[in-house]
Amino acid sequence: MTTASPAQEIPRVNGRLRTALSSRTRPPRANALSSTITFGWRAILKIKHVPEQLFDVTMFPIMFVLMFTYLFGGALAGSPRDYLQFLAPGILVQTIIMITMYTGMVLNNDLKKGIFDRFRAMPVWRASFLAGAMLGDALRYLMASAVVLTVAFILGFRPDGGVIGVALGVLLVMVFAFAISWIWTMLSMFMRTPESLMYGSFMFLFPLTFISNIFVDPETMPSWLQSFVDVNPMTFLTTATRGLMHGEASAGDIGIVLISSAIIVAIFAPLTMYIYNRKE
Amino acid sequence: MSSGKLLAIEVKNLVKTFGETQAVRGVDLQVPAGAVYGLLGPNGAGKTTTARMLATLTRPTSGAARVFGHDIVAEADTVRSIVSMTGQFASVDEDLTGIENMVLLGRLLGFGWSEARERGEELIDAFGLGDAANRQVKTYSGGMRRRLDIAASIVVTPEVLFLDEPTTGLDPRSRNEVWDIVRALVATGTTVLLTTQYLDEADQLADRIAVIDHGKVIAEGTPGELKASVGAGTLHVRVREPEHRPAAQGILAQALGVDIELGTDPSALFARVENTGGISAAFDQLSRREIDVSEFSLGQPSLDEVFLTLTGRPAEDQDAQDETEEAA
Ligand SMILES: Nc1ncnc2c1ncn2[C@@H]1O[C@H](COP(=O)(O)OP(=O)(O)O)[C@@H](O)[C@H]1O
Ligand SMILES: [Mg+2]
Question: pTM to 2 decimals?
């Protein structure tokens, strides 16, 4: 047997390795803003490297706009063009709200990976991981909004509220989207796989967005359905967004969306942070 | 040289339970600074859990540990700033490129964008990954991934590095590359705590080894001491026909004058031998009795053999053992 004791062995290493290892520079701790931006940069890189993920989030809304406008437009509003004025803000709501489930899926994926251990061991503000993910979400929301609005505009969507009205509408939808993404963030800490989270949130969001005033005026619905539609938060959000885009939103319409967003955040954000901080 | 040396890690009666599972059942360790310390044990022994507790990734259920004098629970933040861990499973972002991973971690550690990139490039080059720096990690081979993983752990060179089974699943060449990195790290002053399932690896790298089984340390010492307690040399014999094993056992026992142990493999036998005197005679005896052997070699004991000698039973999967214990 010819085993030299490791202490006697001279490391066969190149100079570069030695130099790299000898550097013991320890920079000052990153502040909360800087670590949030770094996590946001990562979220954006992940969209850049896996652009396919944006395909399904934008193809569905385009299909919906085309299908509903031409299939039902004539019957529901007299002409496809008239119906589009009603539908476009609603499709925007549906699209963005459906995309919120990506937040949970991305996070669920990360939490199971070894890289999460690294993040947890970093001397940074712990919530910056979640806050940074929101930057990625914002990018997704903005890109999907741009796609939906461009298609709608080409088809003849001419909102009375102008550019400012449309921008405010997008902003309001994003506020609500950030609020409900906390629910998926929390669930992502329990669910076993991103797929189960997707099915779960889909089962919840799909009826919620359809049984609302996104596609049709609830007055034509049976009364039992109408009573659901009347309390569905998607209805409030759609009414307010439609109002903003057409320049006729009331303060009450907007207020109720902001208040429900605040309530959702007030419940789910602390709960999520509590679970997140105790996660092993 | 070793007496009175500064301790990098001091562990007292560390326990971790997951529900019903007792992953770590009272581990004591004293890891000297500036050396490689090996934690050797089979799958499920509690190596990962122990390392994760020391790296502040999991809270101990009870017991205490200090890293350079800092309590891993009360002073977790301080400990975190001087240790780093390379997990058993790759802890880099597969979707990102090698350099992006390095910049990401550098930024989180507090470097500016350009400093993070410089440090990342320096390490990537030093680890021989320069050509792959701009490729997504998912295209990397196992060995490259491991090296990137270690590079990612030392963006700020830590005082203590935990390496959890750094070479499991690697081909011999990649394994040697990792070994060289570990040696270089220690040569530049980092203390390394390495977990492994291979006695060979612990022997190559570690200055001291703790053998861990069932969440407990069952032996501790230098590789030399450990091997001496198991047998400096071990004779490995494998018969072609498993039914010849009992006969071979008898012949070898007589020829060598030592106890012959049976391995988990039904055709394997091994014996701890102090001197090599009777070995060729033993071989002659076997061929004279027409017992065909497929292996007859003198070498280091395997982990299995270490375990059999230390515990009287082979190194098995912990989970399987727990089940039999419960059934009994
Ligand atoms: N998070 C966990 N939850 C439940 N059981 C666990 C967990 N982590 C490890 N264990 C159990 O603890 C024991 C020790 O595991 P581990 O420390 O991973 O061993 P090793 O790294 O030596 O293979 C095993 O029985 C394993 O199944
Ligand atoms: Mg392990």
Answer: 0.82
